[in-house]
Known about the structure:
Layout (H helix, E strand, L loop, with lengths): L3 H11 L3 H8 L3 H9 L6 H13 L2 E5 L3 E5 L7
Antiparallel strand pairs: 1-2
Helix pairs in contact: 2-3, 2-4
Amino acid sequence: MLTSAQCRAARGLVDWNQQQLADAAGVGVATIRLFEAGKGEQRRSTLSVIRQALEAAGVEFTNGDQPGVRLRRFSRKT
């Protein structure tokens, strides 16, 4: 679904710190810190809101052979 490495990389792509992601996802900053550090189990619903916040900021998650992230390309309308 979402790995801690993907989360860190996605934050870097949108230039967010942990607090900004926590605010966007509606979770506590401690939740983000623990998840990114690989400590503790996160609920599926928590991972889902984190992922949704990052996707809303323009991140695409690639989950092929190796999980990754990239910025979504926005098409310009003329």
